[in-house]
Design brief:
alpha/beta, eight-stranded mixed sheet, 39% helix
Length: 438
């Protein structure tokens, strides 16, 4: 229980171009505030992020009054003029709009809703007039200044001041596990949406049958999950948070493919023994602190005559041409960031050993690659990593830890673009695979 009983705070976002260099901030006083930002984001995302970060920082039992100048935040979460908030309808429609479309900024909305639902103290979110220099709300004006400063710092090639945070109250762990180095920013999701059974689960494809029960662990945006689901009888997707799972289920709904969803930790799956004929995980174990324990859980929920299919990349075995020094820097920085999170970026070479340590008695090993060599493939792969190294959770971690400066990341992004533009460019991503039984 917190020693404080009440907090009043302002939240705000600032986007220079909308979308453009953007910052978010919350402020309780000149000594208690936090801020952050992105190279390119919308004002609405910045406003929502400020609220999410405030809710994350404040203990659930503290009465909280939020002063926000965003009509989008108010309409979505509180409602105005006697109207219900938009989120009421979205939740009723399984996170679809009244017209059947996807909810904008869905991941943030779900995370905020979960944080609000968990609160035991009172929560009031009040609209205040923006940028009113005389007679304006002092809390919102403090947040506005900090959000504007964050966006300006990024625009000038620097990084935002994260701020001192809330005095005497360390922030709670966020819904997204700290160990997931990539995060769920759009460039990451774009890469994951490209995955299909053919390019990411070919080792499993010959074993799939129409009547099987399949579990997909770490389903992400759902393209691979749905592709698997079309080939079996019943599919269940597992993700670590409501926000991440909603991405899977939203895609399945749009494709008209039935998929059940469960929020659970892969180390302690909230699922019965022997429940699935096929248990699948793609690029999951490399992000875990205890991959062997996770494999034991996958083995537990797999039927005695079933199969556990896992595929993991091996970053140290990636190969490319021509030599680009910035790509060497990228690999070293990513490896260091993943290891700092307790993860293992070179998981592929360890996969067979992990499976045997988890108790499997029949392990079939194989390997395969993704190859990016055509002009279109190079542009896609190189462009993705140019974005990912500058505007995702990886970039935030590298900047916050001091492992790289903003200028370093921009230089590395330019290296990726130079590689992509080279007609001789070639990149190979090695993966190890296992089909584990027993």
């Amino acid at each position: 229980m917190s020693a404080r009983t009440q907090i009043i705070a302002g939240t705000d976002g600032s986007s220079r171009g909308n979308p453009g260099a953007a910052g978010w901030a919350w402020a309780v006083s000149e000594d208690e505030w936090a801020s952050g930002g992105w190279e390119r984001e919308t004002n609405n995302v910045a406003e929502l992020t400020a609220l999410r970060e405030l809710l994350t920082a404040v203990d659930d039992d503290v009465d909280l009054e939020v002063r926000a100048d965003s009509t989008y935040v108010i309409d979505a979460l509180v409602g105005r003029a006697g109207k219900k908030p938009w989120i009421t309808g979205w939740k009723r429609n399984r996170w679809r709009t009244a017209a059947g479309g996807a909810v904008a900024n869905q991941e943030l909305m779900i995370a905020i809703d979960a944080l609000l639902t968990a609160r035991t103290g009172s929560t009031t979110i009040t609209w205040v007039k923006a940028h009113k220099t005389v007679g304006g709300d002092p809390f919102n004006e403090m947040a506005d200044r900090r959000a504007h400063a964050a966006a300006t710092a990024i625009l000038d090639g620097g990084r935002p001041d994260p701020g001192p945070g809330l005095r005497g109250a360390p922030a709670r762990a966020r819904e997204e596990p700290a160990g997931y180095t990539h995060g769920h920013a759009e460039p990451v999701l774009r890469a994951h949406r490209w995955r299909t059974v053919e390019n990411s689960a070919a080792h499993l494809l010959p074993l799939l049958r129409p009547a099987q029960r399949l579990l997909d662990v770490g389903s992400g945006p759902g393209t691979l999950t749905v592709d698997l689901a079309r080939r079996v009888g019943a599919t269940t997707a597992v993700e670590v948070s409501e926000a991440a799972l909603a991405l899977t289920l939203d895609h399945a709904h749009a494709e008209g493919v039935p998929v059940e969803g469960v929020v659970s930790d892969v180390h302690h799956l909230d699922l019965p023994d022997d429940a699935f004929d096929v248990v699948h995980a793609h690029q999951v174990l490399q992000h875990l602190t205890d991959p062997v324990a996770a494999l034991r859980e996958l083995r537990r929920v797999c039927a005695a005559d079933g199969v556990v299919a896992v595929r993991e990349a091996d970053y140290a075995a990636f190969a490319w041409f021509p030599a680009v020094p910035e790509l060497d820097e990228w690999l070293a920085l990513y490896t260091g960031a993943a290891q700092a999170n307790g993860a293992q970026p070179d998981a592929g070479r360890r996969l067979r050993s992990w499976a045997r340590s988890a108790g499997f008695t029949d392990v079939t090993s194989s390997s395969s690659t993704w190859c990016f060599a055509t002009a279109a493939d190079r542009a896609w792969w190189g462009g993705l990593w140019a974005e990912r190294v500058t505007s995702t959770a990886l970039a935030d971690q590298l900047l916050t830890s001091g492992a790289a400066t903003r200028a370093d990341l921009e230089r590395i992004a330019d290296g990726w673009r130079r590689w992509a533009a080279d007609e001789d460019g070639w990149f190979s991503v090695l993966h190890a695979e296992v089909l584990a039984r027993g």
